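We modelled the chain as a single entity of 254 amino acids. Its sequence is:
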Amino acid sequence: MTTRLSNKPLLLDELSHPQVKALLDGGMDMVILPVGAVEQHSLHLPLNVDYLLAQEFARGVSAVTGVPVLPALPYGHSSNHRGFHGNYSLRPETFQKVVEELCDWMYAEGFRRVLFLNGNLPNQFPLQSAIANVGTRYADLRLRALNWWDINPELRAWFATDESFGRCHANVAETALMLHLRADLVDMSKTYPMPGKGVRPFFHYPHGAVSRDGHQGDPSQATPEMGRRMFELAVSSLSEQVKAALTERAPEMQ
């Protein structure tokens, strides 16, 4: 069952500072920060895919749960795409530092639960390092980094359906979601299947070594209907998780 998105998301940057204070005073102690990247997505997709998807998932969840959303952090760790035009990357340690400093400010505001909703695979490593460091500073701060494709098992299986050389990038999943959300930015006439399905190299190679034009999988199979169904599934599933997380307490040891 999917969730009907009838409410508006609560966008933190559209509030005044007294409204932010009132939100916190009213007991809302959770915030969502979408994170992504500005990087190439082959011939048929724009550079904004990763942060746009994370942003829209986060806003959809906010509309259902009332949890506020910060503006998406568009720049992430994308050095693996060097060699293609259109990549604007931070070093992993720079990205990690940005996340840590934002956590300092979120904690000072009064937020005690932070969800980083991630749309760029390499971001997950500096995100986890940031969480490790921040967790040592604030024992009562609850942190979670979650890739959108890991929201539930069905999304995970769908995302990996058309991998090539063990990777999924600008593939059927990202293309379908963009067709649903921003079809004006998608050029399906330039899609084609990449070889390498089921082939998994032992070592990690830069994107240019495993993709001719920057994508993996077969984006030509994407449809807007597919994207809409999976978008609503993601929002519905994550909204239920977030509702539970709003009141979650640390487990009691017996």
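As a brief sanity check on the tokenised model: Confidence is low (pLDDT under 50) at residues 1-5. The helical segments are 17-25, 49-65, 92-109, 124-137, 153-159, 172-182, 207-210, 224-245.
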